[in-house]
Amino acid sequence: MELLFPLLLVALLVPMFLGVRRQKREAAKVTEMQDSLKVGDQVITTSGLYGTVVDLDDATVDLEIAEEVVTTWLRAAIREVRTDDDATSTDESPVDAPAAEAIEESAEQTETRLTKD
Questions:
Q1: Beta 69-74 vs 78-82: how paired, if at all?
Q2: 24-83: per-residue pLDDT in tens?
Q3: Contacts (Cβ under 8 Å, ≥6 apart) of 77
Q4: 25 SS3 class
Q5: Smallest Cα–Cα separation from 91: which of 42, 33, 40, 37?
Q6: For residues 67 and 95, what is the distance between their CA atoms, to the nearest angstrom?
Q7: CA 43, CA 106: separation in Å to the nearest integer?
């Protein structure tokens, strides 16, 4: 019974200690990524905006989000740098996919559908 309290403390403190270490490691990786930004990088902000870095400052980043549209963001708002594989896979659209055919319904079917309840 005397060893129960110290054992419980260890059981609770070890996972907390490991969690804090993991958070510090992740924060260090994000800070390193934000510090290594360069002009031309394609990035995603924390709000999900896709853009290309066109200018850098110590605290801010200018992103081109559309042709001739440049916005200024804090470096801390950059969540990740997109690689070429990410950029091309999201831009590709299935060219060979057949277009969905529109099916017209009769006036009677429309009336039935609208009055169903």
A1: unpaired
A2: 999 999 999 988 899 999 999 999 999 999 999 989 999 999 999 999 999 999 999 998
A3: 45, 46, 47, 61
A4: helix
A5: 42
A6: 25
A7: 49
